[in-house]
Amino acid sequence: DRTKQWLETENLTALNHFYSTIPVVAATCLGVFNHPLFQKRTFDFCIIDEASQVFLCTSLGPLFNCHNFVLVGDQKQLPPVVQSTYARYNGLDESLFSRLLNTSGKQDIGHYDDDFNDDNENMNKDYENKFCQSIRIFPLFIQYRMNSVIMQVANQLTYGNKLKCANKQVESISLSDYLVLKSKTGILEEYRSTYLSKVISPDLNDSVIFIDTNSIESAFEIYDEDNSGGNNFSQKQQQSLSLMYDDGENGTNSNTTNDNSKCSFVINPFEAKLISHIVRILLLIYGQKSNDNDDDDDGKNATTFNVDNIGIISPFRRQVNKIRELFGQQFLEQNHLEINTVDQYQGRDKDVIIYSCVKSCETPGETMNPIETSTPIIDSELLKDERRLNVAVTRAKRKLIIIGNCHTLKRYLPFRNLFNVLRVEQFVSLKNFDFNDIV
């Protein structure tokens, strides 16, 4: 606004003075190309956050405006998003962060044509050595987000047990930190004997839970090519679910993906409805409205829990759309419930993360066999990427709930590794599941 005002009054002297005296400037990597400030200033330092997700060529722009630069990122999380398989194969998804990290280890920053003469080769080698010596890598192993149980999963999956909690408070955070009114403890006890027992448990040891849908007849994936939010439930099951969820009136029409592969159209209606139910139960037990009152409460532990503490993620855009549809546009706008893909959740965190894996074979209790199933099974690159699973796991601070079919997901190496890491008591089976339970 100040810039616009000075431009309108043609007070360029004041504008130049303003631009030259700002000590810290925040911008996107692409934004530096369009703003006149960056054409007049050279900064002492440029810090690029989430640098592992920025295209190499995009990172170069800000670096022309600084004497020194700092890249902050995690190579074990998602790289820049590249839709083209051909472009990914040829290295477009390599960030400057990854390039320099690999360079510092290999002491090699490039390849040169064979017809370079000896003088050029010696000059380039000298430059390589000086450049590599100027790179300083500082690994940060102290984390302030996850409790010790969630961190342990991330450590064993990805970080080789190098991550450490910053302090005892971070190490022990859980849902027990939230106020549960004594008038609601009966509701909590009511679910102790159901499949929801560990899902809603505030105990630190129950911070990571995997809900296995393998035993549910209708919990398999379907292909929603027309974005209609297809449904494979039986008539009886649909009648039960419709008592609590309205798929029509409150639905939203989200933008569809341009990807023509069948994997981009996959949804799992059962997982979507189960997630919706879990969110409502969590809010019922831990949520507290401003007019809630409990005469037995002494006012301690006044931290409150609301929808903003919950994040819902899935690797598939259509599943995200389906879950949003169940909650309805009005609910999402009023309560700020964030439902998104794993890629778009990178850099964010929530107290509770619910992850919908979606992929599931038709026949419960059996390993997927493309020859025997009537619906064609399409492999998903999204589930094969260990970095994507790492991002999903590390978004949670107090509770991580993963929903999926164990037998199907065993086809993917990252999930096989996850199942080897989880303890037996961290798995929740739905063998005795009754559809009426979620109504």
From TrEMBL:
It catalyses: ATP + H2O = ADP + phosphate + H(+). GO terms for biological process: DNA repair; DNA replication, Okazaki fragment processing; replication fork reversal. InterPro entries: DNA2/NAM7-like, DNA2/NAM7-like_C, DNA2/NAM7_AAA_11, P-loop_NTPase, SF1_C_Upf1. CDD domains: SF1_C_Upf1 (cd18808). Its EC number is 3.1.-.-, 3.6.4.12. It holds the Pfam family AAA_12. It is found in: Nucleus; Chromosome. GO terms for molecular function: 4 iron, 4 sulfur cluster binding; 5'-flap endonuclease activity; ATP binding; DNA binding; metal ion binding; single-stranded DNA helicase activity. Keywords: 4Fe-4S, ATP-binding, Chromosome, DNA damage, DNA repair, DNA replication, DNA-binding, Helicase, Hydrolase, Iron, Iron-sulfur, Metal-binding, Multifunctional enzyme, Nuclease, Nucleotide-binding, Nucleus. Residues 13-84 form the DNA2/NAM7 helicase helicase domain. The keyword DNA-binding applies. One of its GO terms (cellular component) is nucleus. The keyword Iron applies. Residues 136-406 form the DNA2/NAM7 helicase-like C-terminal domain. Key enzyme involved in DNA replication and DNA repair. Involved in Okazaki fragments processing by cleaving long flaps that escape FEN1: flaps that are longer than 27 nucleotides are coated by replication protein A complex (RPA), leading to recruit DNA2 which cleaves the flap until it is too short to bind RPA and becomes a substrate for FEN1. Also involved in 5'-end resection of DNA during double-strand break (DSB) repair by mediating the cleavage of 5'-ssDNA. Belongs to the DNA2/NAM7 helicase family. This is DNA replication ATP-dependent helicase/nuclease.
